[in-house]
Amino acid sequence: MTVRQSIVFNGDLGSGKSTVSVEIAKRLGLRRVSVGDLYRQMAQERQMTALQLNLHAELDQAVDGYVDQLQRDIAASGERLVMDSRLAWHFFTDALKVHMITEPTEAARRVLARPSGPAESYTSLEEARTKLRERSESERGRFIVRYGVDKARLRNYDLICDTTRATPEQVIQHVIDVFEGRLGAEVLREGTPLLLLDPARVYPTEDIATLRGLWDSEFVGDVAEAGDEALPPLTIGYTGEYFFVVDGHRRLSAALQSGFPLVPARLVGEVEEPVVGGMSAIDYFTAQARPSVIHDWAAAHGTPLPLPEHALLGGDAVLAGEPGTGA
């Protein structure tokens, strides 16, 4: 297994990167560098908002050039550190590359609750959500054009962690456990990203009526007692927007019944990559995650799952609160 010298964070705006990276740096006794703080300072000096600076950087390469060279120099120095940066994963070769995600409305709530500043200020939840999406899309497009890399591709990272319901302490401890080799070592040895997902945001792909053992109280009790880190990883596909189960519905159900905010998983395929029988992740999800499948799973576990676009357009759509076929 690769010995990780540093930890580099990137991910969704509002996912808690600053909170988590600050505390991890303290606990590990490492220096922390925040490129986000640097960009906010640059925006303030130019009397711009963070979004305006992102849009300006699409035209002026000097903005990224200065920050890029700083990251290259730090990576080349060999210093062990914690770095909070949108692109550090591209420059560091010996770091644990952590990508943090969260549900967009929850991210907007968190950002809206922060003290506002000249570089980042929002007047409503909807404005925050819209501006965060615009900033993310601006960065993604700029990185694709300028560096030829897509920050949305999960295989760029070692660890993807969903912070939607997990507390900062839970996220911090899980990341440290991965960094120190106590969690996910087998998955990482395979060269596959380790996913720590919110089980309430993972979609089923089988009818609940055909799944046996979901309500095995002894199994659920054993899972609850052992904790989420002891759960064998699920096998997961990713459409670019939605995570879905390829193998492990019973374990996912037990995690939900146990109230876990995180569940370990390995990525089998994303977007156009094959997941089962040569079908791409998108095609498999579209074929298997039917409205009735989603509704019955959500109703059985008390966890609302928004219907994806393909399900809203599908022929067997059900209304919220209406029983499906396998309840």
Automatic annotation (TrEMBL):
Q: Which SUPFAM superfamilies match?
A: P-loop containing nucleoside triphosphate hydrolases, ParB/Sulfiredoxin
Q: Which domain of life is it from?
A: Bacteria
- Location of the region described as Disordered in the Swiss-Prot/TrEMBL record: 112-133
GO MF annotation list? kinase activity
- Is Kinase tagged as a keyword? yes
Q: Which UniProt keywords apply?
A: Kinase, Transferase
* Keyword NADP set for record: no
Protein known as = Cytidylate kinase, putative
